[in-house]
Design goal:
The protein is an alpha/beta fold. It has 3 domains: 80 residues, Winged helix-like DNA-binding domain superfamily/Winged helix DNA-binding domain (Arc Repressor Mutant, subunit A, Orthogonal Bundle), CATH 1.10.10.10; 92 residues, D-Maltodextrin-Binding Protein, domain 2; 105 residues, D-Maltodextrin-Binding Protein, domain 2 (3-Layer(aba) Sandwich), CATH 3.40.190.10. It is 46% helix and 19% strand. The chain is built from 13 helices and 11 strands. The strands form 3 sheets. Strands 3, 4, 5, 6, 9, 10 and 11 form a 7-stranded mixed β-sheet that branches. Strands 1-2 form a two-stranded antiparallel sheet. The longest helix is centred in the first third of the chain and has 25 residues. It is rod-shaped and about 95 Å long. It starts with a helix and ends in an 18-residue tail after the last helix. The C terminus is likely disordered. Belongs to the LysR transcriptional regulatory family. Keywords: DNA-binding, Transcription, Transcription regulation. Pfam families: HTH_1, LysR_substrate. This is LysR substrate-binding domain-containing protein.
């Protein structure tokens, strides 16, 4: 059954006339008659008594009940999907978010809490993975958006910088000076698995110091990395804001990256990445609003860490 036919059927029942229905729907009476005949053929029953006024048969009353529900659901869904500015509590559905683990641990909790307060009917799913894996998941449509290091290289993805992080060297012992190349060669770096953007910065930093083969041990989880660094197992390269939050818990120490090359490698932008805005769901629009993302401008103001407090 076509929604157009159901709308005409509803109009005839409400107006008591094929002619009145045609006027309300800005069409000709023969078009209304044809759609009603098509509906009756589809359901295998007479739906209207052709009297004056026209009224529904028992079968017609049954269909009218469902027709109103279907038309109402259609109109509500259309209005919601066409809306770009959602009122509090209006967004409904599931938002599938991908994020680097450091961003998920530090930046997202206050944002997600605020999103849920504004739209209680939103359900959230979070996948914490390295940047390369997140871009693969996003391109395959398994997540709706992702927080990754830097803009996405794929032309079909859209990126907006939302956070700026300073990467620092993390150690289990106080750092009175920056370690030498020999000291780094005698130790290891603890990092996330291959595809992590921070891991790439480790390799670039070591290359700038003339170290061609740095030893990197994959530990996977943030707490494991910090715990092993605190135990003296090796170094890590993590965001300063994250280390400052976790410093008391793990007893780790940190130092800024020295020199021009170090500072160039230290600062990284975390970008909010999605597919084309034309395909966004209402819940994704609500999240983008919260982040200050303008789908047209492709840019956003950095979100303060404590904005949801």
């Amino acid at each position: 059954m076509q929604l157009k036919s159901l709308r005409m059927f509803e109009a005839v029942c409400d107006g008591g006339s094929f002619g009145v229905a045609a006027q309300r729907l800005h069409t000709v009476q023969s078009n209304v008659t044809a759609h009603i005949k098509k509906l009756e053929d589809e359901v295998g029953a007479q739906l209207l008594m052709r009297a004056s006024p026209v009224f529904p048969t028992p079968a017609g009353r049954t269909l009218l009940q469902y027709a109103r529900q279907m038309l109402q659901s259609h109109d509500q869904a259309l209005a919601l999907l066409q809306s770009r500015q959602l009122a509090p509590g209006q967004a409904r559905g599931t938002l599938r978010i991908g994020s680097m683990e450091t961003t998920a641990a530090l930046r997202l909790p206050p944002l997600l809490a605020r999103l849920r307060r504004q739209h209680p009917d939103i359900d959230l799913e979070l996948d914490a993975s390295p940047t390369a894996a997140l871009l693969t998941e996003l391109t395959a449509g398994r997540i709706d958006c992702a927080f990754v290091n830097g803009a996405a290289p794929q032309s079909d993805l859209h990126s907006w910088p939302v956070f700026r992080e300073e990467l620092v060297l993390v150690s289990g012992q106080p750092l009175l000076r920056f370690p030498t190349a020999d000291e780094f060669c005698a130790s290891v770096f603890l990092a996330f698995r291959q595809g992590c953007s921070y891991r790439q910065r480790i390799e670039l930093l070591m290359a700038s110091m003339g170290i061609s083969a740095v030893r990197i041990m994959e530990l996977g989880m943030l707490d494991t990395i910090l715990g092993c660094v605190a135990a003296g197992m090796g170094y890590a390269l993590l965001s300063r804001s994250l280390v400052e939050v976790q410093q008391q818990r793990f007893g780790v120490h940190w130092m800024s990256l020295p020199g021009k090359t170090g500072q160039e490698l230290a600062w990284v932008d975390t970008c909010f990445v999605t597919g084309a805005p034309q395909g966004w769901s209402p819940v994704l629009h609500a999240f983008a609003q919260l982040l200050g993302v303008d789908p047209q401008a492709r840019q956003a103001q950095p979100v303060p860490l404590a904005m949801a407090a």
